[in-house]
Design goal:
Layout lengths: L9 H6 L6 H22 L14 H34 L17 H30 L6 E8 L2 E6 L5 E3 L1 E5 L4 E7 L4 E4 L6 E4 L5 E5 L5 E7 L11 E7 L1 H12 L8 H12 L2 H4 L23 E2 L4 E2 L2 H9 L1 H4 L16 H11 L4
Helix pairs in contact: 3-4, 6-10
């Protein structure tokens, strides 16, 4: 009788390089390993600008402590459960030489009660600090600086309630003083988030939400919209500059001033183009006839480090490209293309740049 051929088992296929498909399996395993290593290395990146595990203020520190407690508890539970599982695999495996099937256990009342009560106790214990943190985050702090925040597609507008100062995308705050953010939206749902200074809060049309943030040390803190809000959601960034109180007061006083009239020349030409063209219909500049409310207030545009939702560094090269074709630089931008729609020439753009860079 001729020998009966047997097909290799599934485990043998993966271990034999000469069989079809084994190279694909090894390649897939290598890719998954590299992906896991890449994710691990990305999580360990030093000086991450939006690292929630590197708090720089009391509200962020409170959330970080709650995270440490919850994550630590989860790790302990994980190792206990996995340890019991591994122990069960070895202790209750079928021994060699013993005939018959293992004894079937339909239920164990004590074990079932235990497995139900233990998670309940753990969750109840974690609920105590979590609930306390929720009330602490929601409470209005004493001596808070109130700032009205309006989310728009795709940039942030700030109004300092007491002084009336307007700003865009870059929020200045004094170190050591709590900030009470009054959050509203003009269009769709956004979400305000500065990871190192506080939590995350939705910004909802027709509804007012509140959020407290505070910085303990001076610095520049990065944030962004954390709720998908349209085509340029990823381009809706923000920056918070925490400065000493005396420096903040100086900044606030300077922001209260109207824009200085241009001395003449190219700067004056730029102002004329701004006021007589479409720019004044969307933007406001203090001390001029431009009082538009669609785009950011540009009274002190040159004092900002970035523009267009904190996307681009505020320099001549980026500003020229923006005035030529804003939608090309930021998809979905409501500002029309300067060359295609507004008919601006290179000389017009140079004049507008000169004017905007004088607005300090």
């Amino acid at each position: 009788m001729p020998p009966v051929s047997r097909s290799p088992s599934r485990s043998n296929v993966a271990s034999r390089p000469d069989l079809p498909g084994s190279k694909g399996i090894r390649l897939a395993s290598l890719c998954l390993t590299l992906l896991a290593v890449g994710i691990l290395l990305a999580a360990c990146a030093p000086n991450a600008p939006q690292d929630v595990l590197d708090p720089k203020g009391p509200y962020a520190e409170k959330a970080d402590r709650l995270w440490d407690l919850t994550f630590g508890t989860a790790v302990v539970v994980f190792f206990i459960v996995e340890g019991l599982l591994v122990a069960a695999l070895f202790l209750f495996r079928q021994k060699g030489g013993k005939p018959g099937n293992p004894v079937q256990v339909h239920h164990n009342t004590k074990l079932e009660i235990g497995w139900t009560m233990v998670p309940v106790i753990i969750l109840a214990a974690l609920a105590v600090p979590s609930t306390a943190a929720i009330f602490e985050f929601a409470a209005e702090p004493e001596n808070a600086l109130e700032v009205e925040v309006t989310g728009k597609q795709w940039w942030w507008q700030y109004r300092y309630t007491e002084s009336g100062v307007m700003a865009a995308n870059e929020l200045y705050i004094p170190v050591g003083r709590p900030i009470r953010l009054v959050l509203r939206s003009e269009d769709v749902i956004h979400s305000f988030w500065v990871p190192k200074l506080g939590g995350k809060q939705d910004v909802v049309p027709g509804h007012t939400n509140l959020l407290n943030i505070q910085a303990s040390v001076p610095g520049e803190y990065f944030g962004q919209c954390a709720e998908y809000c349209g085509l340029s959601h990823a381009n809706m960034r923000l920056r918070v500059f925490a400065v000493p109180p005396d420096e903040f007061e100086f900044w606030l006083e300077s922001q209260k001033q109207n824009a200085q009239p241009p001395p003449g020349g190219l700067t004056a030409d730029g102002q004329r183009l701004f006021l007589e063209g479409a720019c004044a219909g969307c933007h406001a500049i203090g001390g001029t006839a431009a009082q538009g409310q669609v785009g950011p207030n540009l009274t002190h545009f040159a004092s900002r480090t970035t523009f267009a939702g904190a996307m681009f560094e505020n320099n001549t090269e980026n500003l020229r490209a923006w005035l030529r074709d804003a939608p090309d630089m930021k998809p979905g931008a409501k500002m029309p293309s300067g060359t295609k729609e507004l008919g601006l020439s290179d000389n017009d753009i140079d004049a507008l740049i000169a004017y905007l860079e004088s607005l300090k």
